[in-house]
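Example: Phosphopantetheine adenylyltransferase.
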Amino acid sequence: MPSSDDNFLRREALLFLPGAAFPSFASLKSVYEPAICTVLSALSSSVRGTTRSAILDIAVAVSDLPAPDPQLRIRSFDSLQRLLANTYRLVGVSSVKQSIDLDSPGGIDARVFFVKHHEKPIELQRLESPQIGPVVSLASLAASGFSWECVYSIDSPQGDALLLAFKEAREQISPLGKRISFQKLPATLDIEPLDLSIETGTKHFTPHYSVAVGGTFDHLHTGHKLLLTATVLALDPYVGQSPQKRRIVTIGITGDEMLVNKKYSEFLESWEERWRGVWAFLQSIVTFSSDCAQIKFERLSNPGPNGKRVIVSIGANLEFRIVQISDPFGPTITDEDITALVVSKETRSGGKSVNDEREKNGWAKLEVFEVDVLDMSEEAEGAKGDASAETFESKISSTEIRRHRMKLAKSSHSL
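Written out as C-alpha coordinates, the predicted fold is:
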Protein backbone atom coordinates (compact mmCIF):
# COMPACT_ATOMS: atom_id res chain seq x y z
CA MET A 1 0.00 0.00 0.00
CA PRO A 2 1.06 3.68 -0.14
CA SER A 3 4.25 5.14 1.22
CA SER A 4 6.23 3.82 4.15
CA ASP A 5 6.55 5.79 7.38
CA ASP A 6 10.04 7.04 6.40
CA ASN A 7 8.92 8.29 2.98
CA PHE A 8 5.87 10.01 4.45
CA LEU A 9 7.84 11.77 7.19
CA ARG A 10 10.67 12.98 4.94
CA ARG A 11 10.29 16.70 4.09
CA GLU A 12 12.95 19.07 2.80
CA ALA A 13 11.65 22.28 4.37
CA LEU A 14 8.95 24.01 6.40
CA LEU A 15 8.13 27.68 5.78
CA PHE A 16 6.11 29.66 8.32
CA LEU A 17 4.06 32.56 6.98
CA PRO A 18 3.05 34.47 10.12
CA GLY A 19 0.19 36.68 8.91
CA ALA A 20 -3.02 35.81 7.10
CA ALA A 21 -5.47 38.68 6.72
CA PHE A 22 -4.56 40.19 3.34
CA PRO A 23 -7.22 42.09 1.40
CA SER A 24 -5.80 41.06 -1.98
CA PHE A 25 -3.32 38.85 -3.76
CA ALA A 26 -1.19 41.93 -4.47
CA SER A 27 -0.72 42.64 -0.76
CA LEU A 28 0.14 39.00 -0.02
CA LYS A 29 2.63 39.08 -2.88
CA SER A 30 4.30 42.29 -1.74
CA VAL A 31 4.96 40.85 1.72
CA TYR A 32 5.88 37.23 1.02
CA GLU A 33 7.19 36.93 -2.55
CA PRO A 34 10.86 37.58 -1.63
CA ALA A 35 10.77 34.90 1.06
CA ILE A 36 9.07 32.33 -1.15
CA CYS A 37 11.48 33.02 -4.01
CA THR A 38 14.43 32.49 -1.66
CA VAL A 39 13.11 29.16 -0.39
CA LEU A 40 12.16 27.88 -3.85
CA SER A 41 15.60 28.74 -5.19
CA ALA A 42 17.38 26.98 -2.32
CA LEU A 43 15.28 23.83 -2.62
CA SER A 44 15.45 23.74 -6.40
CA SER A 45 19.24 23.70 -6.36
CA SER A 46 19.16 20.65 -4.08
CA VAL A 47 17.12 18.51 -6.50
CA ARG A 48 17.96 19.94 -9.92
CA GLY A 49 18.93 17.16 -12.30
CA THR A 50 17.53 14.42 -10.04
CA THR A 51 14.40 12.30 -10.37
CA ARG A 52 12.87 13.42 -7.07
CA SER A 53 10.97 16.50 -5.93
CA ALA A 54 11.79 18.66 -2.92
CA ILE A 55 8.86 18.74 -0.50
CA LEU A 56 8.04 22.18 0.88
CA ASP A 57 5.46 22.49 3.66
CA ILE A 58 4.00 26.00 3.93
CA ALA A 59 2.28 26.68 7.26
CA VAL A 60 0.09 29.80 7.16
CA ALA A 61 -0.70 31.12 10.64
CA VAL A 62 -4.34 31.88 11.45
CA SER A 63 -6.31 32.60 14.59
CA ASP A 64 -9.95 32.90 15.71
CA LEU A 65 -10.72 29.34 14.61
CA PRO A 66 -11.65 27.65 17.91
CA ALA A 67 -11.85 23.96 17.11
CA PRO A 68 -14.96 23.08 19.14
CA ASP A 69 -17.14 25.51 17.15
CA PRO A 70 -17.99 23.84 13.80
CA GLN A 71 -20.29 26.65 12.72
CA LEU A 72 -17.47 29.16 13.02
CA ARG A 73 -15.19 26.88 11.02
CA ILE A 74 -17.66 26.41 8.16
CA ARG A 75 -18.43 30.13 8.09
CA SER A 76 -14.71 30.69 7.55
CA PHE A 77 -14.62 28.49 4.44
CA ASP A 78 -14.60 31.29 1.85
CA SER A 79 -11.82 33.21 3.59
CA LEU A 80 -9.70 30.11 4.15
CA GLN A 81 -10.02 28.83 0.59
CA ARG A 82 -9.19 32.29 -0.79
CA LEU A 83 -6.07 32.52 1.35
CA LEU A 84 -5.16 29.00 0.30
CA ALA A 85 -5.64 29.87 -3.39
CA ASN A 86 -3.61 33.07 -3.12
CA THR A 87 -0.76 31.26 -1.38
CA TYR A 88 -0.62 28.56 -4.05
CA ARG A 89 -0.87 31.25 -6.70
CA LEU A 90 2.10 33.07 -5.18
CA VAL A 91 4.12 29.85 -5.23
CA GLY A 92 3.25 29.51 -8.93
CA VAL A 93 4.16 33.11 -9.75
CA SER A 94 7.47 32.79 -7.91
CA SER A 95 8.32 29.51 -9.62
CA VAL A 96 7.70 31.01 -13.07
CA LYS A 97 9.96 33.98 -12.34
CA GLN A 98 12.80 31.60 -11.48
CA SER A 99 12.06 28.90 -14.08
CA ILE A 100 11.52 26.33 -11.35
CA ASP A 101 9.33 23.30 -12.03
CA LEU A 102 6.48 22.38 -9.70
CA ASP A 103 5.21 18.85 -8.99
CA SER A 104 7.67 17.13 -11.30
CA PRO A 105 11.06 15.42 -10.97
CA GLY A 106 13.74 17.96 -10.17
CA GLY A 107 11.13 20.48 -9.01
CA ILE A 108 9.24 21.57 -5.91
CA ASP A 109 6.26 19.80 -4.34
CA ALA A 110 4.59 22.52 -2.23
CA ARG A 111 1.81 21.72 0.27
CA VAL A 112 -0.06 24.53 2.02
CA PHE A 113 -1.93 24.12 5.30
CA PHE A 114 -2.97 26.30 8.25
CA VAL A 115 -1.51 26.45 11.74
CA LYS A 116 -3.41 27.93 14.67
CA HIS A 117 -1.27 30.32 16.68
CA HIS A 118 -2.44 31.06 20.22
CA GLU A 119 -1.05 31.35 23.72
CA LYS A 120 -2.56 28.20 25.26
CA PRO A 121 -0.26 25.68 26.98
CA ILE A 122 1.12 23.00 24.68
CA GLU A 123 -0.67 20.09 26.37
CA LEU A 124 -4.01 21.92 26.19
CA GLN A 125 -3.41 22.59 22.49
CA ARG A 126 -2.84 18.89 21.90
CA LEU A 127 -6.01 17.90 23.76
CA GLU A 128 -8.18 20.42 21.91
CA SER A 129 -6.68 19.86 18.46
CA PRO A 130 -6.08 16.27 17.32
CA GLN A 131 -3.40 15.78 14.70
CA ILE A 132 -5.82 16.14 11.79
CA GLY A 133 -5.39 18.90 9.19
CA PRO A 134 -5.54 21.01 7.18
CA VAL A 135 -5.93 23.31 10.23
CA VAL A 136 -3.66 22.17 13.07
CA SER A 137 -2.16 23.60 16.23
CA LEU A 138 1.54 24.36 16.60
CA ALA A 139 1.66 21.51 19.11
CA SER A 140 0.31 19.03 16.55
CA LEU A 141 2.80 20.27 13.96
CA ALA A 142 5.67 19.97 16.43
CA ALA A 143 4.58 16.43 17.36
CA SER A 144 4.13 15.28 13.77
CA GLY A 145 7.53 13.65 13.46
CA PHE A 146 8.07 15.21 10.03
CA SER A 147 11.77 15.21 9.21
CA TRP A 148 12.47 18.70 7.85
CA GLU A 149 16.02 19.61 6.89
CA CYS A 150 15.35 23.32 7.41
CA VAL A 151 12.63 25.48 8.95
CA TYR A 152 12.27 28.97 7.48
CA SER A 153 10.57 31.93 9.13
CA ILE A 154 10.07 35.63 8.40
CA ASP A 155 12.35 38.02 10.31
CA SER A 156 9.60 40.11 11.88
CA PRO A 157 8.04 40.33 15.36
CA GLN A 158 5.21 37.97 14.41
CA GLY A 159 7.54 35.63 12.56
CA ASP A 160 9.87 35.51 15.56
CA ALA A 161 6.98 34.79 17.95
CA LEU A 162 5.67 31.98 15.74
CA LEU A 163 9.09 30.37 15.39
CA LEU A 164 9.78 30.63 19.13
CA ALA A 165 6.43 29.00 19.94
CA PHE A 166 7.20 26.16 17.50
CA LYS A 167 10.67 25.61 18.97
CA GLU A 168 9.29 25.52 22.52
CA ALA A 169 6.54 23.08 21.52
CA ARG A 170 9.02 20.82 19.78
CA GLU A 171 11.37 20.89 22.77
CA GLN A 172 8.56 19.90 25.14
CA ILE A 173 7.15 17.17 22.91
CA SER A 174 10.28 15.58 21.40
CA PRO A 175 13.43 16.97 23.05
CA LEU A 176 15.57 14.21 21.51
CA GLY A 177 14.20 14.63 18.01
CA LYS A 178 16.24 15.26 14.89
CA ARG A 179 18.21 18.50 14.86
CA ILE A 180 16.74 21.01 12.42
CA SER A 181 18.40 23.98 10.78
CA PHE A 182 16.49 27.23 11.35
CA GLN A 183 16.81 30.15 8.97
CA LYS A 184 15.23 33.60 9.11
CA LEU A 185 14.28 35.31 5.86
CA PRO A 186 14.43 39.11 5.56
CA ALA A 187 11.07 40.85 5.71
CA THR A 188 10.08 43.41 3.10
CA LEU A 189 10.90 46.98 4.05
CA ASP A 190 7.26 48.03 4.20
CA ILE A 191 6.03 45.09 6.27
CA GLU A 192 3.52 46.02 8.96
CA PRO A 193 2.07 44.03 11.87
CA LEU A 194 -0.15 41.43 10.24
CA ASP A 195 -3.57 40.26 11.36
CA LEU A 196 -3.87 36.51 11.80
CA SER A 197 -7.65 36.52 12.20
CA ILE A 198 -9.89 34.99 9.54
CA GLU A 199 -13.16 36.63 8.52
CA THR A 200 -16.37 34.68 8.90
CA GLY A 201 -19.20 34.94 6.40
CA THR A 202 -22.90 34.16 6.22
CA LYS A 203 -22.95 32.06 3.04
CA HIS A 204 -22.11 28.74 4.74
CA PHE A 205 -23.26 27.93 8.26
CA THR A 206 -24.35 24.25 8.27
CA PRO A 207 -21.74 21.70 9.42
CA HIS A 208 -21.22 18.77 7.03
CA TYR A 209 -20.13 15.25 7.89
CA SER A 210 -20.05 13.80 4.35
CA VAL A 211 -18.57 15.89 1.53
CA ALA A 212 -17.60 15.02 -2.04
CA VAL A 213 -15.38 16.19 -4.88
CA GLY A 214 -14.67 14.76 -8.31
CA GLY A 215 -12.16 15.02 -11.11
CA THR A 216 -9.60 13.30 -13.29
CA PHE A 217 -6.64 14.19 -11.03
CA ASP A 218 -4.13 13.30 -13.72
CA HIS A 219 -0.54 14.29 -12.90
CA LEU A 220 -1.51 15.96 -9.62
CA HIS A 221 -0.73 19.69 -9.69
CA THR A 222 -1.33 22.90 -7.75
CA GLY A 223 -4.93 23.28 -8.90
CA HIS A 224 -5.74 19.77 -7.68
CA LYS A 225 -4.06 20.49 -4.33
CA LEU A 226 -6.23 23.57 -3.85
CA LEU A 227 -9.42 21.67 -4.67
CA LEU A 228 -8.62 18.70 -2.43
CA THR A 229 -7.59 20.85 0.53
CA ALA A 230 -10.74 22.95 0.21
CA THR A 231 -12.81 19.77 0.21
CA VAL A 232 -11.43 18.77 3.61
CA LEU A 233 -11.99 22.34 4.84
CA ALA A 234 -15.70 21.92 4.02
CA LEU A 235 -15.85 18.95 6.40
CA ASP A 236 -16.85 19.53 10.01
CA PRO A 237 -13.72 19.72 12.24
CA TYR A 238 -12.57 16.47 13.77
CA VAL A 239 -13.54 17.46 17.31
CA GLY A 240 -16.48 18.44 19.46
CA GLN A 241 -18.73 15.43 19.97
CA SER A 242 -18.56 12.51 22.32
CA PRO A 243 -18.86 9.99 20.86
CA GLN A 244 -17.56 11.61 17.70
CA LYS A 245 -19.61 11.40 14.55
CA ARG A 246 -17.91 9.72 11.61
CA ARG A 247 -16.68 12.10 8.92
CA ILE A 248 -16.52 10.98 5.29
CA VAL A 249 -14.75 12.55 2.31
CA THR A 250 -15.67 11.01 -1.05
CA ILE A 251 -13.29 11.60 -3.96
CA GLY A 252 -14.60 10.52 -7.35
CA ILE A 253 -11.76 9.85 -9.80
CA THR A 254 -12.62 9.34 -13.46
CA GLY A 255 -12.10 5.78 -14.69
CA ASP A 256 -9.58 5.02 -17.45
CA GLU A 257 -12.29 4.11 -19.97
CA MET A 258 -13.70 7.66 -19.86
CA LEU A 259 -10.36 9.21 -20.79
CA VAL A 260 -9.49 7.50 -24.07
CA ASN A 261 -10.36 10.62 -26.08
CA LYS A 262 -8.28 12.97 -23.95
CA LYS A 263 -5.41 14.79 -25.67
CA TYR A 264 -2.08 12.98 -25.38
CA SER A 265 -3.91 10.08 -23.78
CA GLU A 266 -0.85 7.84 -24.04
CA PHE A 267 0.70 9.94 -21.28
CA LEU A 268 -2.29 9.72 -18.95
CA GLU A 269 -1.68 8.15 -15.58
CA SER A 270 -3.67 5.02 -14.81
CA TRP A 271 -6.49 5.13 -12.26
CA GLU A 272 -4.20 3.27 -9.87
CA GLU A 273 -1.49 5.91 -10.19
CA ARG A 274 -4.00 8.73 -9.86
CA TRP A 275 -5.69 7.52 -6.67
CA ARG A 276 -2.29 6.95 -5.08
CA GLY A 277 -1.23 10.47 -6.01
CA VAL A 278 -4.43 11.92 -4.55
CA TRP A 279 -4.03 10.02 -1.31
CA ALA A 280 -0.32 10.84 -0.96
CA PHE A 281 -1.18 14.52 -1.07
CA LEU A 282 -4.21 14.26 1.23
CA GLN A 283 -2.20 12.32 3.77
CA SER A 284 0.43 15.07 3.80
CA ILE A 285 -2.03 17.83 4.75
CA VAL A 286 -4.44 15.79 6.89
CA THR A 287 -2.35 13.37 8.97
CA PHE A 288 0.01 15.19 11.33
CA SER A 289 1.03 12.09 13.20
CA SER A 290 4.10 9.88 13.07
CA ASP A 291 1.89 6.85 13.72
CA CYS A 292 1.03 5.61 10.23
CA ALA A 293 -0.36 2.42 11.81
CA GLN A 294 -3.62 4.28 12.50
CA ILE A 295 -4.28 4.41 8.73
CA LYS A 296 -6.17 1.40 7.35
CA PHE A 297 -6.79 0.58 3.68
CA GLU A 298 -9.58 -1.50 2.21
CA ARG A 299 -10.10 -2.26 -1.48
CA LEU A 300 -13.58 -3.02 -2.79
CA SER A 301 -14.63 -4.12 -6.26
CA ASN A 302 -18.39 -4.54 -6.32
CA PRO A 303 -20.61 -4.84 -9.39
CA GLY A 304 -22.52 -1.80 -10.56
CA PRO A 305 -21.68 1.91 -10.69
CA ASN A 306 -19.06 3.24 -8.27
CA GLY A 307 -18.25 -0.29 -7.13
CA LYS A 308 -14.49 0.01 -7.44
CA ARG A 309 -13.10 2.00 -4.55
CA VAL A 310 -10.36 2.30 -1.98
CA ILE A 311 -11.44 3.17 1.56
CA VAL A 312 -8.84 4.83 3.77
CA SER A 313 -9.73 5.04 7.46
CA ILE A 314 -7.87 7.28 9.89
CA GLY A 315 -8.73 6.14 13.38
CA ALA A 316 -12.38 5.39 14.06
CA ASN A 317 -13.95 8.65 12.94
CA LEU A 318 -12.49 9.80 9.61
CA GLU A 319 -12.84 8.01 6.30
CA PHE A 320 -11.75 8.80 2.74
CA ARG A 321 -13.64 6.98 -0.01
CA ILE A 322 -11.70 7.10 -3.27
CA VAL A 323 -14.11 5.91 -5.95
CA GLN A 324 -13.65 5.08 -9.63
CA ILE A 325 -16.46 6.86 -11.49
CA SER A 326 -17.86 6.10 -14.93
CA ASP A 327 -20.19 9.09 -15.33
CA PRO A 328 -20.11 12.81 -14.43
CA PHE A 329 -22.07 12.31 -11.20
CA GLY A 330 -20.40 9.42 -9.40
CA PRO A 331 -21.48 8.74 -5.80
CA THR A 332 -23.31 12.09 -5.48
CA ILE A 333 -26.40 10.48 -7.03
CA THR A 334 -26.01 7.03 -5.46
CA ASP A 335 -25.14 8.03 -1.89
CA GLU A 336 -27.95 10.04 -0.31
CA ASP A 337 -25.91 10.72 2.84
CA ILE A 338 -23.51 13.07 1.03
CA THR A 339 -24.57 16.63 1.90
CA ALA A 340 -21.95 18.88 0.28
CA LEU A 341 -20.06 19.11 -3.01
CA VAL A 342 -16.89 21.09 -3.66
CA VAL A 343 -16.31 22.49 -7.17
CA SER A 344 -14.07 25.07 -8.79
CA LYS A 345 -15.71 28.26 -10.02
CA GLU A 346 -15.10 27.17 -13.61
CA THR A 347 -17.05 23.93 -13.05
CA ARG A 348 -19.92 25.34 -10.97
CA SER A 349 -22.42 24.10 -13.58
CA GLY A 350 -21.54 20.58 -12.45
CA GLY A 351 -22.99 21.33 -9.03
CA LYS A 352 -26.31 22.33 -10.56
CA SER A 353 -26.40 19.17 -12.70
CA VAL A 354 -25.79 17.00 -9.65
CA ASN A 355 -28.58 18.68 -7.70
CA ASP A 356 -30.97 18.33 -10.64
CA GLU A 357 -30.33 14.57 -10.61
CA ARG A 358 -30.75 14.33 -6.84
CA GLU A 359 -34.01 16.23 -7.08
CA LYS A 360 -35.29 13.59 -9.51
CA ASN A 361 -34.67 11.00 -6.78
CA GLY A 362 -36.48 13.12 -4.20
CA TRP A 363 -33.21 13.69 -2.33
CA ALA A 364 -32.06 16.86 -0.61
CA LYS A 365 -29.83 19.11 -2.67
CA LEU A 366 -26.13 19.28 -1.88
CA GLU A 367 -24.67 22.49 -0.54
CA VAL A 368 -22.16 23.58 -3.18
CA PHE A 369 -18.84 25.11 -2.09
CA GLU A 370 -16.95 27.02 -4.78
CA VAL A 371 -13.17 27.22 -4.87
CA ASP A 372 -11.27 30.04 -6.58
CA VAL A 373 -9.60 29.41 -9.92
CA LEU A 374 -5.84 29.91 -10.02
CA ASP A 375 -4.97 32.50 -12.65
CA MET A 376 -2.43 35.17 -13.55
CA SER A 377 -4.83 38.00 -14.37
CA GLU A 378 -2.98 40.49 -12.17
CA GLU A 379 0.37 39.47 -13.67
CA ALA A 380 -0.55 39.28 -17.35
CA GLU A 381 0.01 42.88 -18.39
CA GLY A 382 1.89 43.26 -21.63
CA ALA A 383 3.68 40.63 -23.67
CA LYS A 384 5.96 39.52 -20.87
CA GLY A 385 3.00 39.04 -18.57
CA ASP A 386 1.14 37.04 -21.21
CA ALA A 387 4.13 34.73 -21.54
CA SER A 388 4.29 34.33 -17.78
CA ALA A 389 0.59 33.55 -17.64
CA GLU A 390 0.98 30.89 -20.31
CA THR A 391 3.89 29.35 -18.41
CA PHE A 392 1.91 29.34 -15.18
CA GLU A 393 -1.11 27.77 -16.88
CA SER A 394 1.12 24.98 -18.15
CA LYS A 395 1.93 24.11 -14.53
CA ILE A 396 -1.74 23.73 -13.56
CA SER A 397 -3.10 21.99 -16.66
CA SER A 398 -2.98 18.21 -16.86
CA THR A 399 -3.27 18.47 -20.65
CA GLU A 400 -0.24 20.76 -20.84
CA ILE A 401 1.70 18.52 -18.48
CA ARG A 402 0.99 15.53 -20.76
CA ARG A 403 1.98 17.57 -23.83
CA HIS A 404 5.25 18.51 -22.13
CA ARG A 405 5.94 14.88 -21.31
CA MET A 406 5.25 13.93 -24.92
CA LYS A 407 7.81 16.52 -26.11
CA LEU A 408 10.37 15.21 -23.64
CA ALA A 409 9.76 11.65 -24.83
CA LYS A 410 10.19 12.68 -28.48
CA SER A 411 13.39 14.59 -27.79
CA SER A 412 14.88 11.67 -25.86
CA HIS A 413 14.09 9.30 -28.74
CA SER A 414 15.75 11.62 -31.24
CA LEU A 415 19.06 11.65 -29.34
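The two ends are 37 Å apart (CA to CA).
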